[in-house]
Amino acid sequence: MYKIKVNDTHSFDISKADLDKLDAIETNTSNFHVLQHNSSTKVSVLNSDFNKKNYTIKVNSNTYNVDINDDLDQLIEALGFEVGATKQVNDIKAPMPGLILEINASEGQEVKEDDALLILEAMKMENVITSPRDGVIKSVNVNQGETVDKNSLLIEFK
Known about the structure:
This is Acetyl-CoA carboxylase biotin carboxyl carrier protein subunit. This protein has 158 residues and is mainly β.
């Protein structure tokens, strides 16, 4: 079960069965044609932050910010914990298989939380991988144009 929050004002529960019923066709990179109740809708993904599970989408001419929380996210919230509040993140791994399009970090570079470190293309979508914390880059373990598997080590922090 996924809890979807739109523009921090509306919440919806969506099951995996609901997703299986979704009639969406990708027309080109980040653009989709969705049919629902015999009605056609154009949807574009304008921005995606895979780590924070936050997306900006455009439906027809309206733009929405969408947050997606899975069962684990909901459990962590229910228990009153913040993700990463006590964990020191020392490395970034690929959240999915994909192609490294751009690298914005280098060894020894000082970065701030949420700085864009690299762009990973997966399923024809560009996913910006951001820094989970302030820190210094110990090593960048990938090259631009390289294909990576899920959980491949991308960047290490000092």
